[in-house]
């Protein structure tokens, strides 16, 4: 699938940021680093990485780390332009259900989400709506 010039520019800007974020992941239990890069409305990037806990339910994914960090910095839900998720140990990554639900509320249905693994040719582009079709929300 060919990206528009605008989406390609977002992808190229976010990929190195997400790769760097994955390098900061705390994943001693799974050895599965993930990085996320979130483009703000003013062109800044907020990074997130997965942070594990031996009690897996307490683990936080890279996507939610980036989003929660952005919100804690005072950025408004729905003000983001795109997110890229990177995982070097798989050909392509896909957000978990919890991340998809948080993305729906904080990114918005039309926000692009790029998912990339060690094989850039396998990268997938979605919108949040495509990741969570028929979603229930209160917005």
UniProtKB/TrEMBL annotation:
Signal sequence range: none
Annotated Gene Ontology cellular component terms: cytosol
Record keyword Metal-binding present: yes
One function term, GO molecular function aspect: identical protein binding
Assigned keywords, A-Z: Hydrolase, Metal-binding, Zinc
Residues holding Zn(2+): 61, 96, 99
Active site (catalytic residues): 63 (proton donor)
GO biological process, one term: nucleobase-containing small molecule metabolic process
One Pfam entry name: dCMP_cyt_deam_1
Cofactor(s) essential for the protein: Zn(2+)
EC number assigned by the record: 3.5.4.5
Binding site for substrate: 50-56
Domain CMP/dCMP-type deaminase: 9-139
Cited function: This enzyme scavenges exogenous and endogenous cytidine and 2'-deoxycytidine for UMP synthesis.
Family to which the UniProt record says this protein belongs: Belongs to the cytidine and deoxycytidylate deaminase family.
Name of this protein: Cytidine deaminase
Native species: Stutzerimonas kirkiae
């Amino acid at each position: 699938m060919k990206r528009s010039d605008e989406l390609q520019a977002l992808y190229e800007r976010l990929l190195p940021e997400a790769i760097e974020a994955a390098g900061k992941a705390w994943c001693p239990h799974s050895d599965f680093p993930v990085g996320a890069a979130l483009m703000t409305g003013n062109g800044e990037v907020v990074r997130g990485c997965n942070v594990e806990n031996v009690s897996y339910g307490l683990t936080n994914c890279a996507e939610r780390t980036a989003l929660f960090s952005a919100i804690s910095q005072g950025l408004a839900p729905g003000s983001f332009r795109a997110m890229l998720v990177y995982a070097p140990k798989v050909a392509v990554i896909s957000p978990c259900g919890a991340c998809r639900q948080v993305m729906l509320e904080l990114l918005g249905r039309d926000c692009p989400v790029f998912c990339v693994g060690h094989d850039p040719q396998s990268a997938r582009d979605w919108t949040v709506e495509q990741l969570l079709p028929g979603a229930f929300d209160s917005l």
